[in-house]
Amino acid sequence: MATVTAQSGDEAPIPLIAKLETVVRLPDEDRRALAALGVNAREMGARRNIIREGDRPDHVHLIVEGWAARYKLLPDGARQITAFLIPGDFCDLHVTILGEMDHGIATLTRSRVAFIPHSVMEALTQRPALIKAFWWATLVDEAVLRSWIVNVGRRDAFEAVGHLLCELYVRMKNVGLVEDHRFDLPLTQEEIGDALGLTSVHVNRVLQRLRAEDLISLRHGHLTIHDYRRLEKAAGFNPNYLHIERRVQAPASRGPVTL
Amino acid sequence: MATVTAQSGDEAPIPLIAKLETVVRLPDEDRRALAALGVNAREMGARRNIIREGDRPDHVHLIVEGWAARYKLLPDGARQITAFLIPGDFCDLHVTILGEMDHGIATLTRSRVAFIPHSVMEALTQRPALIKAFWWATLVDEAVLRSWIVNVGRRDAFEAVGHLLCELYVRMKNVGLVEDHRFDLPLTQEEIGDALGLTSVHVNRVLQRLRAEDLISLRHGHLTIHDYRRLEKAAGFNPNYLHIERRVQAPASRGPVTL
DNA sequence: GGTTGTGTCTAACATGGATTAGTCACGATG
DNA sequence: CATCGTGACTAATCCATGTTAGACACAACC
Fold first, then answer.
1. Does residue A252 carry a pLDDT above 50?
2. Is some CB atom of chain A closer than 8 A to the CB atom of B142?
């Protein structure tokens, strides 16, 4: 798959670095430290637990490749997904301070997941540029969570699904995984429902309406957005909260970007 | 009002410091820098905008006293509240990187709000202990947002309201504002509804059920929780995500706590 | 002490989305 | 090639919550 690279000409971009450098360029030494995290990531099959609620892991996990989801199981068996994690996303930074996981995380697809010892995280956060970048990434995650609350709380099912698709489109684009308004969306209708507080039955109805209105096609885990502007409008989507800097999307294979 | 102090014996505790020190004690110099933030906070009336969507403020705002809410207005006039801000909470840390506000923030009660220039934030975040503490606080905020998503997405109205009350109880306790299972809760039923994706009519029905089941009383902006354990259970509330350290709740006016 | 505004509470009715219980297509597996 | 499992899709019915509209209590203000 051809991808947009925001780092150095010919190598595949490293999603974590691409994401963090959306805000500001990192010192080379820091980029090297980050790049090292991914080298011996573990392969995991689809639908495997990365961590469970209640765990007190001694590693921080980072998605290097593939998709995962953060989810909370309720006593009555209902599931609420609170995040979709894509390459470059940390799974459980908060566990250092929270002590135990208050939710679980599972892969959705075959994935590569880095297991980072606390000692390494400790070392990384000694670097001023990195701790700042991590904090900023957390602030962006927060903005995403807020938009999900709006989705679930006050948008109807049609708008909510549309909004989620727009969000994933922009995030995938930010890490260079969109090609011509098309990207892999390996979510079942049930997973989409669990993210938006809907049933899979209702998600199905909504997707059909999105297709009927010629906004998207979605088949075999591939999503194509036919009319992004109209979808954005129908869903009330404004990408400002994701902080897209043009310079990260544009320069494709022109070498490192300086400020 | 008598409060639990986690700082120095006789003075009123500073909520921001209390909150940040839930995780780890800060160097005295850092505490002094934080304490300085509150000294010339501005008085604001109830229901005043602190910032509006689209603003590009040149200050970061901090709630020193009173309550505020983060809210998003939708095209159809609906409002979704995404956070209740209490003393010690920052309003808009993310605006530095996001550029513009993607939502508004308004006071709910008479408040004191500190306006902190970016240059001061910049200086504070040069201090290793402080930037770490800010990041941690952001991670806790994230955990709160996740629990709201679960509230709105998969809990029914009764559980959701109960869960919110438990959350606010614990957070208020963390900053020393709970006395004998009782605290100020200056929210209208409409505001509670806007936080949980419900109408005020339905919130009213639920509150009456909570009273009928003898779990709470709520009158004139004062909430008393009669049976916290039962409420916690009815709402499926587990405070682990808020990271309560006993040592912050316990030591009541015994002077500074050291690790 | 009337008026105004705000918040609480109630009732009657309407509905978006849940629930339940399937069918069907397809890929993987033995 | 029969079987199994999973995900997409459909239809009929139901219910938690929304909508609308108004009564009531109380505080602030002239």
1. no
2. yes
